[in-house]
Amino acid sequence: MLVVSGTIPIKAESRDEAVQLALDMAKATQAEDGCLFYQFYADLADPNLIRVFEEWESEEALARHMQTDHMATFIKAIPRLVAGPVEAKKYTVSAADPLSA
After folding, report:
1. pLDDT by residue (tens digit) across 25-37?
2. Considering the domain boundaries, does residue 40 fall inside one?
3. Is the CB of residue 35 less than 8 Å from the CB of residue 54?
4. Which residues share a beta bridge with 50?
5. H or E segment at 93?
6. Does residue 60 lie in a domain region?
7. Are 14 and 21 within 8 A, CB to CB?
8. Into how many domains does the chain fold?
9. Domain-located, residue 98
10. 97 occurs within a structural domain
11. Up-side HSE of residue 97: CA atoms within 13 Å toward CB?
12. Domain that holds residue 41
């Protein structure tokens, strides 16, 4: 399994447009084969910082995702909405177990 975690700093005046773009992206991506989880979140301390968290079955599933029309639309639209660099990291996960308190 792969996990992707990232941050997207958004211009305050572009927040509504960025949120709609993220909602559209999440809806399309969640329907993809190999997508286990895909969601955007607003940071609690900074509402103009959007976080993304993804889980993928395989490297191949993530690679297919990167070639989709909705990813192309997102990549084209996001540069005019951001207030700084977009950052993302990919993690390879060998096991995932429930965490108990």
Report:
1. 999 999 999 999 9
2. yes
3. yes
4. 8, 42
5. none
6. yes
7. no
8. 1
9. no
10. no
11. 5
12. 2-92
